[in-house]
Amino acid sequence: MTNTYAVVLAAGQGTRMKSDLYKVLHPVCGKAMVEHVIDNINRLGANRIVSIVGHGAEKVEETLGEKSEYVLQQEQLGTAHAVQQAEALLGRLEGTTIVVCGDTPLIRSETMRDLVEHHKASAAKATILTAIADNPLGYGRIIRAENGQVLRNVEQKDATPEEQKVNEINTGTYCFDNQALFEALKKVRNDNAQGEYYLPDVIGILQGEGAVVSAYATEDFSETLGINDRVVLAEAEQVMRARLAEQHMRNGVTVINPENTYISANAKIGRDTILQPGTMIEGDTVIGSGCTIGPNSQIVNSVIGDQTTINSSVVLESKIGAHTSVGPFAHIRPETNLGNHVRIGNFVEVKKSTFGEGSKAAHLSYIGDATIGSAVNFGCGTIVVNYDGKKKYVTTVEDEAFIGCNSNLIAPVTIGKGAYVAAGTTVSKDVPVDALAIGRARQENKEGYVTKLKLN
Ligand code: UD1
Ligand code: CA
C-alpha cells in the first residue's frame, strides 16, 4: 500500500464573501466548510493531513484542532504557492497526495477515493477531478487535445472566448505523485492575469515533460461547488441539506418535508422519530427514537430522550428526558435538565432549572434557577421570582409539591415535600413539608352593594 497524504488549502481571505468571518469557516449545515473537507479526507484514511492556513489561521486551527497539521502561508500568492508551503513537511515522502480546496465542502469521500483509484490505475503523475458545469463561469477550464488527452487547465481570467466556452471545469481537487508534485511546483510561474502561482499549472508542466496526466470526471457537478460568495453558499447549503435529510431518512427517520427541515451535519437522530416541517436541529444535538419534533421547532446543542414531543418550541443547550412533552410555544433556555414524563406546556419559559420525573408546568409560567423534584405541579401562571435586580437566587421545590395558579415564588426559597401553595400566593419564606402556604388578602363579600351603587 502506498501512503496517502492530503493538503487542504485554507489560507485565503475569501474577499468575495464580503465577511468578517474567514471564508473556510463559514458553516454549511452548521459545520465549517473546511471541517467538512477534513472529515471527508479522514474517511479516506490519509496518513497525514496538512492544512495551509493564512487569513484567520488561529481561528481555523481552533476549529479543526488535532484533525490536521498546519503550515502558515504568510502571503497568499496563489494555490501553487500554498501547496509549496507543505514542502518541508511532505516534500521528500513517497506516496500519493490529494489536494483539496477548503471551500469545496460537498466533495464526498467516495468521490475522493474514486479519484485516487483512477489516479493509481492510470499510473499518472497527476490526476485532476473535473466536472461538467451548466454554468462554468469562474472555474478553471480543462483543455484537452483532440484525442481527449488532458493538456492543461486555464483559469477564467486567462481564458480566451473560445476557452470560456469549455464546460468541463477544474473542481480544485487533485491527486499527485507526491515527489513529482513538489518538483513541478518549483517550475510554476505567475505570469498570468492575476499574477498568482496557479496549482493547476502543474498539470500542464507535467504534461509538457511527458509525464502521464489524467482527469477523472465526476457526474455530479453539485458535489464540486466551490463556495466563493454567499449565493453559492446558499446553493451548497441546499445540496448538503438534502443529502443529510436523505441520510437520516435512510436510517429510519421520517422527514415530512425535507425542503424545509434543517438538520445540522453533527446531529444524531434515532429511528422512528418524525421531523415535522419548519424544524431546525442545530449543533451537536442528539435526538432519541420515536420522538415527534415540530412543526416549527428549533433545537440547539441539546439531548432529547426517546418518545418525546417538542412542538413549536425553542430548546437551547439543554437536556430533555424520555416521554416528555414540550410546547406548543415553550422556551427552554440553556442548562435546563428536564426528566422523564415531564410536561412543559404553552407559554412556559424554563431557564437553568432541573425538573424531576413527572413534574408539570403546563401553562403560562416562568421558572428560572430552580431545582424541581418529581411529581411537582405548577399551576397556570406560576412565576419564579429569581432576580432582585442585582443577583439571581435559587428556588427549590421538593417532590409532590403543588403550586396553585398565579403564585409567585420569591427566591431564595424552598417549598417542602408535598406542600401546597394556595392560588394567588406570593411565597417569600420557606414552606415546610406538607404545609399549606396561603398569602393573599382575605375576600370579603358586601351583600347588595351593587344595587346600592346603581341607585345613586
Ligand atoms: C480554484 C482553481 C480553479 C478551480 C476552482 C474550483 C486555481 C488557480 N484555480 O479557483 O481552477 O476551478 O478553484 O473551486 O487554483 N488559497 C490559499 N492560498 C492562496 C490562494 C488560495 O490557501 O494563496 C485557498 C483558498 O483559501 C481556497 C482555495 O485555495 O480555499 C481556492 O482558492 P480560490 O481563490 O477560491 O480559487 P478559485 O478562484 O476558486
Ligand atoms: Ca474557490
Written account of the structure:
It is elongated and about 110 Å long. The protein has a 16-stranded parallel beta sheet that branches. A nine-stranded parallel beta sheet has the order 14-17-20-23-26-28-30-33-36, with no helix packed on it. Strands 5-4-1-6-10-7-11 form a seven-stranded mixed beta sheet. Helix 2 links the parallel strand 4 (48-53) and strand 5 (69-72). The protein contains ten helices and 39 strands. It is α/β, with parallel strands linked by helices and 456 residues long.
Blueprint (SSEs and pairs):
Blueprint: E1 4-10, E2 27-28, E3 31-32, H1 33-44, E4 48-53, H2 57-64, E5 69-72, H3 79-84, H4 87-90, E6 96-101, H5 109-121, E7 126-132, E8 141-144, E9 150-154, H6 161-164, E10 168-177, H7 178-185, H8 201-208, E11 213-218, H9 230-250, E12 254-255, E13 262-263, E14 268-269, E15 274-275, E16 280-282, E17 286-287, E18 292-293, E19 298-300, E20 303-304, E21 309-310, E22 314-316, E23 319-320, E24 325-326, E25 331-332, E26 337-338, E27 343-351, E28 354-355, E29 360-368, E30 370-372, E31 377-378, E32 383-385, E33 395-397, E34 402-403, E35 408-410, E36 413-415, E37 420-421, E38 426-427, E39 436-437, H10 449-455
Parallel strand pairs: 1-4, 1-6, 4-5, 7-11, 12-15, 13-16, 14-17, 15-18, 16-19, 17-20, 18-21, 19-22, 20-23, 21-24, 22-25, 23-26, 24-27, 25-27, 26-28, 27-29, 28-30, 29-31, 30-33, 31-34, 32-35, 33-36, 34-37, 35-38, 37-39
Antiparallel strand pairs: 2-3, 6-10, 7-10, 8-9
Helix pairs in contact: 1-5
